[in-house]
Amino acid sequence: MKIIYHKDYVNYAGYRNDPAASSGRIIPIIKEIKEKTDYEIITPEPASEADILRAHTERHVKDIKTDKNLYYIASLAAGGAIKTAEIAYDNEEAAFGVIRPPGHHASTDSCWGFCFFNNMRIALLSLMAENKIESAFILDFDLHTGDGNISIIGQNSKVQILNPRSSGRVNYIKEVEEAFESLSNIDIIAASAGFDEYELDWGGKLSTDDYNTLGQLMKEYSLKLCKGRRFAILEGGYYYEHLGINVVSFCQGLE
Known about the structure:
This protein is an alpha/beta fold.
């Protein structure tokens, strides 16, 4: 299991006043990973402008570039997503990107919700540009619907996405399992991993064990469908006291 992380994701200048950039989010995750696992931590490089332009318009990139600090950290997040996806594909194993800022609310020519570039779209398009994949399944289990993922990825009929919306934790897990069961001809399985459906977070639904189950389901079906190629990148999650615990629980299911 590989963890992709850069020290600049913690409270970086130009982004640190953003609630989604609070050090309370990243620090407990990395602390829990270092204390409870032996996962290898890999440092990414920023995505190139060419990488980003596969997913976004020149106008949007230019707009983000007006703040050089913001462009750097958003590019570094996109680069972290690319590295996460590459490891999952090339090594046929699990990888998790502990990246900031998030990306699933970034569309082709706009963004909101503390997102700037669509990290997931950039990562998958990088694999496609290298002729590694043609298809993918994305499980976006953030509380908030990943409208950016849907708007951009909806342009490719070979990329499927599920934002579970069932009420209650049992039905939620069942919805995810049924979606996996319906899949075929998938080259990689990915997750936009938001942890704000947690029972003590805004969603008030999923337990720590449920996140482990989501990871297990990704592993099980990736081994059946795509040689074990699976990865996840961090999106939301606001109950910082248990965020690291929930991320590690998910990773232990995914590994």
